[in-house]
Design brief:
Shape: elongated
Structural class: alpha/beta
Mean pLDDT: 96
Oligomer: single chain
Largest sheet: 8 strands, mixed
Number of strands: 20
Strand order of the largest sheet: 8-9-11-10-14-18-15-16
Length: about 525
């Protein structure tokens, strides 16, 4: 990971490969953002005009490079667009700063050190820029030949260039407790989010339920988290019919991993449940050609839960957080579950499987019921669950459903606060009838229209009575098949990690709902 330092040094005298400044878009053209005063002064106050001459407008995500002025020890100035300038005396939004820092960090791949002279109004801005740098500099090249000799694993060379090695945040005070705490938080959350990205990007021949469980076990032991792994034998003995059914077609057996972070002074318990399908072929209901290539990402929910629990432990949050990783590989074979089969779930309910590609709800159902037995104050599941949610909300927004409107609103607000777009979705009761089965208690499919909501209704059936619950369908934003943007890379994104961590923080502080 990129090393972060806090510095009150003046930009001209700082030894670095580049000075990063912000430029905003105004009605009269680009304007230099606060934090870059020393740089602007060195251009005799004409930096905005120089940038405009070079074609810069201040639009979000825009990068303009120009030689540093005489007297600077850094040879390069990198101006990154912040979008529309805020009203007079108004601060820049934290997400704007996060995105700008991410864009600049990615543009400076191959550099040893860059100084970020972006607007820093308070510790929240310091944390946002730190997060943007650490997330934007991410690279996953561990399987590429040019990464072999770096010794840095997934953070090695990026298309021949190593990620930015060091970032100095100018204006962030090394002795300011709030600034230091903001950077420490950003580092813990970003490192775990990037670990989730690594898992999502790992090819399925290397990431199986067993190997995922091993990664989780190692991290749990490192950070003082209690871990329990149920293998096929334990799952069979416990009656986890959903997880076993989905995993029955694969040579790689399923696992249920329980991660328990506890705090001696905690009086609240938050349970997180993640869908962990390490590869989803669709099973007997095989996916059509063109829909298989990215299905290694179908464990993104479990990766998010894993990362959030470890981050909570690293931050020492005063809340008990339990993570449940429902891990299986969904494959077609002579032993695979068939359309028409009936599974007896861990809860005792029976499910008629009408489509084996609706498998995520089956593993989640078992894990949700297991989580419910501990009577947590709230349980949240996270899953790349339905293509219907992508159709509804696109590729950058996840849907939030819940059995409590206030809890759903609190999650949407937490997601907005950390920069993860989400949208509240309903659970229409009339859609439940479509899952009635003449053979079992419920079918795993219902009406095609509103399929994302149907999936949410199915999951609700496996939440213990009286337990506050929410469901995050991250099918859209979990995996970015397009080009990178802001601090979001191509491939696994780590969607929902920051929302879950913020939810844990709010639960710990008693400020949730």
């Amino acid at each position: 990971m990129t090393a972060l330092t806090l510095s009150t040094a003046a930009a001209p005298g700082l030894r670095a490969d580049a000075i990063v400044i912000g430029v905003a878009k105004d009605a009269g053209g680009p304007v230099v953002a606060p934090g870059a005063e020393a740089v602007d002064k060195a251009y005799d106050g004409r930096l905005a005009g120089v940038l405009e001459t070079l074609g810069a407008s201040g639009a979000e995500g825009e990068v303009t490079k120009l030689p540093a002025p005489a007297g600077f020890k850094a040879p390069l100035v990198v101006a990154v667009g912040l979008g529309a300038a805020p009203e007079k005396d108004a601060a820049y939004d934290a997400e704007v700063l996060r995105k700008a820092a991410g864009v600049a960090a990615r543009a400076l791949a191959g550099s040893k050190k860059a100084a970020f002279a972006l607007p820093l109004g308070d510790s929240g801005d310091v944390g946002a820029v730190a997060e943007g740098v650490l997330l934007g500099a991410y690279a996953f090249d561990v399987y590429k030949e040019n990464a072999k000799d770096t010794g840095k694993g997934a953070q090695g060379k990026k298309n021949g260039k190593a990620p930015l090695a060091e970032a100095a945040l100018l204006g962030a005070k090394p002795r300011d407790k709030a600034h230091k705490a903001a950077v420490e938080r950003a580092t813990a959350v970003s490192e775990e989010l990037n670990r989730a990205r690594d898992l999502i990007n790992t090819p399925p021949n290397d990431l199986t339920p067993e190997s995922f469980a091993a990664v989780a076990t190692a991290a749990a032991k490192e950070h003082g988290i209690k871990v329990q792994v149920l293998d096929e034998k334990a799952l069979t003995k416990g009656g986890y019919g959903g997880i076993l059914g989905v995993g029955s077609g694969s040579a790689a057996g399923p696992r249920l991993v329980k991660l328990s972070y506890t705090h001696s002074k905690a009086d609240k318990h938050l349970a997180l449940v993640g869908k962990g399908i390490t590869y989803d072929s669709g099973g007997i209901s095989l996916k059509p050609a063109g829909h298989n290539e990215t299905m290694k990402c179908d464990m993104s929910g479990a990766a998010a839960v894993f990362a959030a629990v470890v981050a909570a432990a690293r931050l020492g949050l005063q809340v008990n957080v339990t993570g449940w990783l429902a891990l299986a590989e969904n494959m077609p074979s002579g032993t695979a579950v068939r359309p028409g089969d009936v599974l007896r779930m861990y809860s005792g309910k029976t499910v008629e499987v009408l489509n084996t590609d609706a498998e995520g709800r089956l593993v989640l159902a078992d894990a949700l019921w297991a989580a419910s037995q501990e009577k947590p104050d709230a349980v949240v599941d996270v899953a790349t669950l339905t293509g219907a949610m992508v159709l509804a909300l696109g590729h950058r927004t996840f849907g939030v459903m819940a059995n409590d409107d206030a809890f759903r609103s609190a999650i949407v607000e937490a997601a907005e606060e950390v920069g993860e777009p989400s949208w509240p979705m309903p659970l229409p009761e009339h859609l439940r009838k479509g899952m009635d089965s003449p053979t079992a208690d419920i079918a795993n499919m219902g009406e095609r229209m509103g399929g994302g909501l149907v999936a949410g209704l199915f999951l609700r059936e496996f939440v213990g009575e009286g337990i506050t619950w929410a469901h995050l369908d991250i099918a859209g934003p979990a995996f970015n098949e397009g080009g990178p943007f802001g601090y979001t890379p191509k491939g696994g994104t780590g969607s929902a990690v920051r929302t879950l961590v913020r939810l844990a923080e709010l639960t710990a502080s008693g400020d949730l709902g």
